Amino acid sequence: MTHTSNFADRLVERILRTKSRVCVGCDPDPALFPPELAEVEDAVAATAAFGFELMSAVGDVAAAVKFQAAFYERFGPAGLEVLARHLAAAREAGLIAILDCKRGDVGHTMRAYCEAYITPGAPLETDAVTLAPYIGADGLAPFSVCAGEHGKGYFVVVKSSNPSTADVQDVLMEDGRPVHHRVAEMTAAVGRHLVGQSGYSAAGAVVGATYPDAITRLRELMPQQFFLMPGVGAQGGDVSLLGRAFDTRGLGGLVASSRGVAFAWREREGVDWREAAREAAHELRLAVNAILPLW
To answer: pLDDT digits over 53-82, tens only?
Structure first.
């Protein structure tokens, strides 16, 4: 499936259609599977079934699904084949498919990653990927070019949701600002030419929901970036504190939850795991909409 429109515009269209700013994380960890899948001897087959069932359950209440590459790569070629099928199924269902692989390397290597992920017909074609910024602007540039050519997107890890983010991302530079502010400026600059009719760029940013106090300044530094905000649920992020990520239209952010949705059955005794996932995604949609409605 080839898209020529701007990624951010397509994301906005999906958000408005579903009235949802929820991104469901698909982290197919067999250790957390419901009994009916945990008992399947073929872990690859169980992973495949999990992803398809999860998408079916949340497809009309979520804007996007984020697939964590590691849980597929662990199985080698067989796992990557399942990942390809999951990504294709998500896009065919109208969901925005995001591959969480956090790639970051020198320019010619990143061009190869573009061919793997965001070039039409790519083996693991997806709508967007997550990128690591440590290499600098040279590492982002190939994705910026390719995204513009093919209507794809990417999210740069600016401020992640994990507890040790301060080890690197909060280190102060000579001007007294944290490193993640410089990454934010770089992300905005490299993605400036990717701004669509929605006012947002196809170059987005990962901003952890666990650090709501950082959002105000990051929004000032990245006014045209969509924020992908993981950390709600199992990591303790509070949805009610994320309002500063959104504009007056209610746009500008995706609230991501993985374990809190996909494995919600573990906290809902007697509820089918698929229904539990759907309920959790719907409840998250309502919680986000309660902060700021969509116009």
So the answer is: 999 999 999 999 999 999 999 999 999 999
- The full set of domain ranges for the chain reads 7-289
pLDDT digits (tens, 9 = 90+) for 83-129: 999 999 999 999 999 999 999 999 999 999 999 999 999 999 999 99
Distance from C-alpha of 280 to C-alpha of 108, rounded to nearest angstrom = 41
Give Cα separations from 135 to 17, 140, 189 (angstroms): 37, 8, 15
This prediction has a pTM of 0.95
Please tell me the CATH code under which domain 7-289 is placed. 3.20.20.70
Active site residues: 102
- Round to whole Å and give the CA distance between 190 and 27: 29
- Are 295 and 248 within 8 A, CB to CB? yes
Cα 249 from Cα 80, distance rounded (Å): 38
Residue among 196, 191, 240 at smallest CA distance from 12: 196
Quick one: which H or E segment has residue 202? Answer: strand 201-207
